[in-house]
């Protein structure tokens, strides 16, 4: 989808919501709508026009990237230029991103912006971002592919004696070498009893025979994140470790198989949760099944007991059940998929068979 279509979708929303204009301050939303990747500026979108106000450092870049926006250079007080636009285009109702700004900024807006009404828009643009277009999907597919390659690579390095931190650093180094701009989040590597920490940070603990090792990682390509988790065994695993692995795998596979548009996040979460519950591990799966991914690692929709939203083609979500037993260890398996017209397309291709290396 081109930037033009994104802009038009937003302008349509302005009409539906009775807004003459919206002032976009969130940098991710600003680049999503305009194509401008600079870190400072205001995008002001009206029903039939769009402006990007930024300072000298970025005006040239903005003119190149934000092809459907008129670029205005800011000097000093931004409110003078904003008020000029409000006056010239007779903007009475101006939407603003209430979830993005501080109380201080809001007070400034109220005092200095001359629109009749400042209207909070909540998740207006975030809601547009939920449905990914082909170009976004390709970027996420690439980011997932790099993570897949990193997993294959790390399997060759993991052996007793290597530390969690060394594994995490190697994953990160590898992904950056393959073209990732940054990491989607701080890489999680937890082993042995520490694998019961769903979001544990890697430590100097060494990997030992009999450990479960959970690795949760992802990278950013062209502004889009990937996310995957695999748990492996070292040397040999006991019956209970194998049991929880296979329960999590069954829950993950079943939820993926039944994931399709029209279902709610809550319904998909329940599929996985019911399986884990049926084996007696209800209280050991204490987080939601998955989340949307895009420019940010955690976006809507949520696949969780509170996910009321109906899923649609083009949404990209994770499916990541887990079982975590304090003092024993844990397992999580995570894929990232796009919802299609007839099911899902899985971006992650690393095996989910229990690997004991
Ligand atoms: Mn995730």
Describe the structure.
The chain is an alpha+beta fold. The chain has two domains: 3-129, Creatinase/prolidase N-terminal domain (Creatine Amidinohydrolase, Chain A, domain 1); 134-346, Creatine Amidinohydrolase, CATH 3.90.230. It contains ten helices and 19 strands. The strands form six sheets. Strands 4-3-2-1-5-6 form a six-stranded mixed beta sheet, with helices on both faces. Strands 7-10-11 form a three-stranded antiparallel beta sheet. α7 (134-157) crosses α8 (164-177) and α9 runs antiparallel to α10 (265-278). The longest helix has 24 residues, at 134-157. The structure holds manganese (II) ion. The site of manganese (II) ion has 4 residues, from loops.
Helices and strands in order:
Blueprint: H1 3-16, E1 21-24, H2 27-34, E2 42-46, E3 50-55, H3 59-65, E4 70-74, H4 78-88, E5 93-96, H5 103-112, E6 117-120, H6 124-129, H7 134-157, H8 164-177, E7 182-183, E8 188-191, E9 212-217, E10 219-221, E11 224-225, E12 228-233, H9 239-258, H10 265-278, E13 290-292, E14 299-303, E15 316-319, E16 322-325, E17 329-332, E18 335-340, E19 343-346
Parallel strand pairs: 1-5, 3-4, 5-6
Antiparallel strand pairs: 1-2, 2-3, 7-10, 8-9, 9-12, 10-11, 13-14, 15-18, 16-17, 18-19
Residues 227, 318, 320, 334 line the site of manganese (II) ion (MN).
Structural class: alpha+beta
CATH architecture of the largest domain, by name, is: Alpha-Beta Complex
Name given to the CATH homologous superfamily of the largest domain:
Creatinase/methionine aminopeptidase superfamily
What CATH first level of the largest domain would be assigned? Answer: Alpha Beta
Rg on CA atoms, Å: 23 Å
Ligands (ions, cofactors included)? manganese (II) ion
Strand segment tally:
19
What integer is the average pLDDT? 97
Number of helices: 10
Q: Tell me about the largest β-sheet.
A: 6 strands, mixed
Shape: elongated
User: Distance between the terminal alpha carbons, to the nearest Å?
Assistant: 44 Å
What is the number of independent domains? 2
User: Which segments are poorly predicted (pLDDT under 50) over 5 or more consecutive residues?
Assistant: none
Strand order of the largest sheet: 4-3-2-1-5-6
> What is the third-level CATH name, the topology of the largest domain?
Creatine Amidinohydrolase
The share of residues in extended strands comes to: 15-25%
């Amino acid at each position: 989808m081109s930037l033009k279509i994104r802009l038009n979708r937003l302008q349509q929303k302005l009409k539906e919501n009775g807004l003459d204009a919206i002032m976009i301050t969130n940098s991710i939303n600003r680049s999503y709508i305009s194509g401008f990747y600079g870190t400072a500026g205001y995008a002001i979108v009206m029903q039939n026009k769009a402006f990007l106000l930024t300072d000298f450092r970025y005006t040239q870049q903005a003119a190149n990237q934000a092809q459907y926006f008129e670029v205005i250079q800011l000097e000093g007080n931004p409110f003078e230029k904003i008020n000029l636009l409000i006056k010239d285009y007779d903007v009475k109702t101006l939407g603003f991103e209430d979830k993005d700004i501080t109380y201080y900024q809001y007070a400034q807006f109220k005092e200095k912006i001359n629109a009749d009404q400042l209207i909070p828009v909540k998740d207006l643009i975030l809601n547009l971002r939920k449905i990914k277009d082909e170009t976004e999907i390709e970027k996420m597919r690439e980011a997932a592919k790099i993570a897949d390659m990193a997993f294959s690579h790390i399997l060759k390095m993991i052996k007793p004696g290597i530390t969690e931190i060394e594994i995490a650093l190697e994953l990160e180094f590898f992904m950056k070498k393959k073209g990732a701009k940054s990491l989607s989040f701080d890489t999680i590597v937890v082993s042995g009893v520490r694998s019961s920490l769903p979001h544990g940070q890697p430590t100097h603990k060494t990997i030992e025979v009999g450990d479960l090792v959970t690795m949760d990682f992802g990278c950013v390509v062209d502004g889009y994140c990937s996310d995957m988790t695999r748990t492996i065994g070292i040397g040999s695993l006991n019956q209970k470790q194998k049991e929880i692995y296979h329960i999590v795998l069954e829950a993950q596979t079943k939820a993926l198989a039944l994931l399709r548009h029209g279902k709610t996040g809550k319904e998909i979460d329940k599929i996985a949760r019911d399986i884990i519950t049926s084996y007696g591990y209800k209280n050991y799966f204490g987080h939601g099944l998955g989340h949307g991914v895009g420019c940010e690692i955690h976006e809507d929709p949520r696949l969780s007991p509170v996910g009321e939203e109906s899923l649609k083609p083009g949404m990209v979500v994770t499916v990541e059940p887990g079982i975590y037993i304090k003092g024993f260890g844990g397992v999580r398996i995570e894929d990232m998929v796009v919802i299609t017209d007839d099911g899902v397309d899985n971006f992650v291709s690393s095996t989910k068979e229990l690997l004991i290396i």
